[in-house]
Amino acid sequence: MASSSSYSLxxxxxxxxxxxxxxxxxxxxxxxxxxxPEEPHKFANVHKIFGASNVSKLLNEVLPHQxxxxxxxxxxxxxxxxxxxVYGCVGAISVLQRQVLRLxxxxxxxxxxxxxxxxxxxxxxxxxxxxxGQNSGLYxxxxxxxxxxxxxxx
Amino acid sequence: xxxxxxxxxxxxxGxxxxxxxxxxxxSNNPQRFEHVHRxxxxxxxxxxxxxxxxxxxxxxxxxxxxxxxxxxSRIQNPVYGCAAIIFHLQQQIHNIESELAKxxxxxxxxxxxxxxxxxxxxxxxxxxxxxxxxxSSSEAPNWFI
Lengths: 154, 145
Description:
Chain A is mainly alpha-helical. Chain A has helices at residues 16-21, 40-49, 52-61, 67-83, 88-123.
């Protein structure tokens, strides 16, 4: 009687992780759902920054329905760190925060302009005094970095 | 051994004079290395530091600071890490730009009603920030320009 084998019957190609790690891609491979073979760079980046065992641990710490998002955010951070080894995606955070500040100032100035126009309209008897005076407010994170220094001398 | 850095204490090894971790992981903050090690692993941190050998010490220190920040973010938010912060900021930028556009439109109406001017001198913002949560990483701005 032939013994049933746990050997993978799948004819699919191994996932990008198992290809990278040069190992057999088992049916229960934790990486396979999230690292398709068509995107080899995704696992390569994540492996370079986090390491395979850390990624595996991280995936096991989150619920199954959250794993895809977790992998995508890890891939994003890994790619940002590879592109900018000094600041990683904190550099992007810093830039976005400055953009928020700049836009907030612009919004305040524009609100002030609207008040002037609205006031002028009131004076002319149009009675429109409303304004969108809702400031969005600053969304602050404790990110003290200003990426104004170029570490690469550019 | 007296005076081991937090990394060598955690890794239970001796801390040599030229320890690569010692400048960045003082012994008075063991949790810092613990968190970085948990997310990245000591070997990957050491590899990063070696890659940055040619840079000034300031930038090597910044690299470790940002790594610590990202590790903390990931521990607090295991699913999204600091990508959640980026997403929030992108959302906020989008919201502010929408509000700006509305107010400018209202100003344009008021100014044309009140003063007969055809066009407001204010130009709507042409900047668009994509609400891309995780990256098409090409959307990540180049902050060195």
